[in-house]
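Technical appendix A lists one of the benchmark inputs used to test multi-chain prediction within the project. The record comprises two sequence entries:
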Amino acid sequence: GNSVTQMEGPVTLSEEAFLTINCTYTATGYPSLFWYVQYPGEGLQLLLKATKADDKGSNKGFEATYRKETTSFHLEKGSVQVSDSAVYFCALKLNSGYSTLTFGKGTMLLVSP
Amino acid sequence: NAGVTQTPKFRVLKTGQSMTLLCAQDMNHEYMYWYRQDPGMGLRLIHYSVGEGTTAKGEVPDGYNVSRLKKQNFLLGLESAAPSQTSVYFCASSYSRAGLNEQFFGPGTRLTVL
């Protein structure tokens, strides 16, 4: 089946530090890959996505590159802010036919001033 | 444009009671979904719908029923609540067309079953 594995949190960083959250996947077909973010007390919001190998998704200073050879989609940001504190979910969705999202367990990021 | 809304925001039930969670979307999306979120488990799909009048089981459907009588609404029912159903429930919706199928999430319903 399909699965997504994320690094366990919480990840604690100081403001302006570099962020990496690892995400790897297994898929029965060719997937699109997503990062969603959940701020405290809210629902999930799409942060970025990539639909094919070597695509780079980017938004709000966050980036992730679809690496088919390593089945990975690691999330990075060069300089985090306190407002980036949230839970980040990696997810995949097969491109063929109808399929639903498969989520990782989420990684909490805590940024201190 | 309200997006995806959920009613109620919070609810406390006793074991054996029943309730219905309502999800509404005003984006004319074909697909709608119900997830539950538990600590350390991420989001797990309960049921989903690909159109008015159709529903399908997700990963964890037991103990839940759903209905999609109108395109804009997706109801999740618990007939006899159990403590294991204590969770945060999220509804989401999306277009059906590939490339436009980002899922939009509601704010969630926090349910406690005593």
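The longest strand of chain A covers residues 86-94. Chain A is about 0% helix and 50% strand. Comparable benchmark entries are summarised in Table A2.
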